[in-house]
Design a protein that fits this description.
Blueprint (H helix, E strand, L loop, with lengths): L2 H11 L21 E7 L2 E7 L1 E5 L4 E12 L2 E11 L8 E15 L4 E13 L4 E12 L2 E11 L4 E5 L7 E3 L2 H7 L2
Antiparallel strand pairs: 1-2, 2-4, 3-4, 4-5, 5-6, 6-7, 7-8, 8-9, 9-10, 9-11
């Protein structure tokens, strides 16, 4: 059996194990309609809670459908559907979430600040530790607010790139004292 198949088979065996859905909340037991999974990326566990899942061993893809909640080290994504590609290759691993909308929340540990956002699609590139919000994207940090067609948020560097898309505009509300305060 190839190492990929052995790893995915191991993941399948772990399905009944109950994991914590939220980092600071007590553990909850899965119900009959939910399964929880723990996958390791860059040595930080990703906890996924969903109604259903599908594993394609040959293509190295896992799909979660129905009230999907993803938590990794202060990052939370809520979506209708999530597709994880390249499970065994942390250099390429990507988590794509779809929803109406997908909600995103990041707690910045060193500053204890919260960044939230939502859009039609959220792509989390695990290796680069960045989040791309696409389609009616909005990002909030305190009273600072960005609206754009696409927003790329580099979690490590704390940098945001907003792109308007075709015939669109980027709209921002910036509170200078709050922006200055986030860098202290």
């Amino acid at each position: 059996m190839s190492s990929l198949k052995q790893t995915v088979f191991s993941l399948i065996l772990l399905l009944p194990i109950s994991l914590s859905s939220f980092a600071n909340e007590p553990s909850k037991q899965p119900t009959d309609t939910k399964e929880e999974h723990k996958i390791f990326a860059d040595n930080k566990p990703i906890t996924i809670d969903a109604n259903n899942q599908h594993i394609d061993i040959e293509k190295n893809i896992i799909t979660f459908i129905g009230n999907v909640i993803i938590v990794q080290d202060g990052l939370t994504i809520n979506a209708d559907k999530v597709v994880i590609t390249d499970m065994q290759d942390t250099e390429k691993q990507k988590i794509t979430a779809y929803g109406n909308p997908v909600n995103y929340k990041q707690i910045l540990p060193e500053k204890n600040k919260i960044v939230t956002g939502h859009s039609a699609q959220v792509i989390y590139n695990v290796k680069q530790n960045n989040v791309v919000l696409q389609g009616n994207a909005e990002l909030f940090q305190q009273d600072n607010h960005i609206i754009s067609n696409q927003i790329t948020y580099d979690v490590k560097k704390q940098q945001i790139l907003a792109q308007s898309g075709k015939n669109g505009r980027v709209k921002s509300t910036i509170i200078p004292n709050q922006v200055k305060g986030t860098n202290k």
